[in-house]
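Moderator note: this is an archived Q&A kept for reference. The question asked for a predicted structure of one protein chain; the sequence and the answer are reproduced below.
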Amino acid sequence: MSDTNDEYLTGPDLDRRYKRSSQTRWRWSKDPSLGFPKPIRIKGRLLYRKSEIEEWERSLAAARAA
């Protein structure tokens, strides 16, 4: 998804959102079975598309419900 109106979240934003450490976020990114969204680099910063994070959350919720 590459919508020019997309919002972006920083790593610390995600850490606060999930109440987890940056180490946990790093482990999630290294585990392909989780499907955690890959960040993009803008001006040297790693950012996550909010829409991809929300889609990932929905997929986790759907998997739990199944």
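Archived answer notes: The chain is about 50% helix and 15% strand.
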